[in-house]
Amino acid sequence: MKKTLKVVAAIIENENNEILCALRSPEMSIPNMWEFPGGKVDQGEDIYAALEREIDEEMNCKIKAEDIFHENIHEYKELIIQLIAIRARIVEATPQKSEHAKLIWLNRENLNSLIWAPADIPIVEKLIKEK
Ligand SMILES: Nc1nc2c([nH]c(=O)n2[C@H]2C[C@H](O)[C@@H](COP(=O)(O)OP(=O)(O)OP(=O)(O)O)O2)c(=O)[nH]1
What we know:
By secondary structure, this protein is α+β, with helices and mostly antiparallel strands. It has helices at residues 47-59, 121-130, and strands at 3-12, 18-23, 34-35, 38-40, 62-75, 79-92, 102-107. Bound molecules: 8-OXO-2'-deoxyguanosine-5'-triphosphate (8DG).
C-alpha cells in the first residue's frame, strides 16, 4: 500500500501582492518542480507549528502560520500527499534559499508560467481565481 504523507505548504504574500514560490532542486524528490515551501508534519505535530518549523529550518526565517487556504489529496506514483496550504506572514528575516534551487516572488497572474508539482495545481488555480 502507498504511504500517505501529511505536508504543509506556506502561502506567503509580500507587500507587492507577490507570492513566494520555491523550485525543488534536482536532488530532492519531485525534482525541478515549483512548490510552496514547507514540508512534512511530524507525528502528533500541530500543522501550524510544523509549517513555522519547516520555514525556519529551510529558509532561516520566522513566520506566523495563520489559516488554512486549501487542502487536497494527491496521489503520486509512489506515494500519496495530503497537502495543506496555509497562509502565513513573515515576522522576522527574509526567506533565504538553502535546499531549494531558486526562490522567487511572483504575481498571481504569473503563477501559471511555472511548472508546479502536480499536488500544487489546485492551490495555484485557487490563488489565480482569488483576485
Ligand atoms: N514542501 C512542499 N512539498 C510538496 C509540495 N507539493 C508536493 O507535492 N510536495 C511533496 C514533495 C515531497 O514529497 C513532500 C514534502 O516533503 P519535504 O519537502 O519535507 O521533503 P523532504 O526534503 O523532507 O523529503 P525528500 O525530498 O527528501 O523526500 O511533499 C509543496 O507545495 N510543498
